[in-house]
Amino acid sequence: MTVPRLELAGVRKRFGSRQVLDGLDLAVMPGESCVIIGASGTGKSVTLKCVLGLISIDAGSIKVDGGEVAGLKGAALDAHRARFGMLFQGGALFDSLSVWRNVAFALPGTAASRKTAAIDNLARVGLGPEVADLRPAELSGGMQKRVALARAIAARPPIIFFDEPTAGLDPITAAVINRLIRELVSDLKITALTITHDMASVREVADRVAMLHGGRIIWHGPRASLESCGNPYVHQFITGSAEGPIKPVGLKP
Ligand SMILES: Nc1ncnc2c1ncn2[C@@H]1O[C@H](COP(=O)(O)OP(=O)(O)OP(=O)(O)O)[C@@H](O)[C@H]1O
Ligand SMILES: [Mg+2]
To answer: Which stretch of DSSP H or E encloses residue 36?
Structure first.
């Protein structure tokens, strides 16, 4: 039997009086593209940060290729993090660094070899060498997102997290980014975990979908069963309805 690449079991995390994750279970198999959907503030980004070891969990277990993440420190934690590429919510490029230095940020080697590698990765996401020496602020939002994707794949990590990859993009640019993610997942044979509110992303990117609500995964299944799953939370989310069991955070019913 194949070991899940990522396995979260009974994960709990609270901030102050707010129990954000409350027994979250999720398994992602090697090479699979899993998408987590869920309303704003439900703990999607927190989940990714827990897996990366940026936030410590209160209870439960997080395993990557069978090895426990909780309690890792120092060099072991660094080695753990090196297995991940991350597209942060909002892109999060370094404004003061050129495009190529952003892409090559985590790559070892000489400046010349790192720049060559950066230009190769920029080509993978459809950007030419002419952008290499520009600053992120000189690019459009869609181009910045491509640079952030190039940075996420540059070290060829076996697992990549995409946090809201299409947020703030027009529908056409978003479709290009979604297709790019799908191609990268297939071509580079990575395991991908994507977080999104964007149903177009779900359709393009997901092999499997998991819905987070109330600190738990309340439904998961293949992408093709999403529409017909009969779960009222999923139904409300995918139809974008104000009526249903999900109450927006911070609003009185
Ligand atoms: N470091 C932190 N300290 C305290 N509270 C935090 C911290 N990080 C996240 N939270 C809280 O945890 C909850 C979940 O946040 P998270 O960023 O995971 O939401 P999300 O599901 O990614 O939402 P969105 O779709 O809006 O990005 C929020 O209430 C947030 O305020
Ligand atoms: Mg988030």
So the answer is: strand 33-37
Give the pTM.
Answer: 0.89
- 10 Å Cβ neighbour count for 131? 20
**CB within 8 Å of 247: residues ≥ 6 apart:** 253
Ligand 1 atom 18: the closest Cα is on which residue?
A: 43
> Domain map of the chain by residue range?
1-82+190-253
pLDDT in tens, 180-218: 889 888 888 899 999 998 888 999 999 999 999 999 999
Q: Which numeric CATH code is attached to 1-82+190-253?
A: 3.40.50.300
**C-beta 62 within 6 A of ligand 1:** no
Q: Which of 18, 19, 46, 47 to mutate to test the pocket of ligand 1 (most atoms within 8 A of CB)?
A: 46
Which of 47, 62, 43 minimizes the C-alpha distance to 214? 43
Residue nearest to atom 31 of ligand 1 (CA): 41
**3-class secondary structure, 82:** coil
Beta bridge partners of residue 163, listed in sequence order: 195
| Identity of the residue numbered 29 | M
* Helical pair 141-154 and 111-124, crossing angle rounded to 10 deg: 120
- CB 40 less than 6 A from any atom of ligand 1: yes
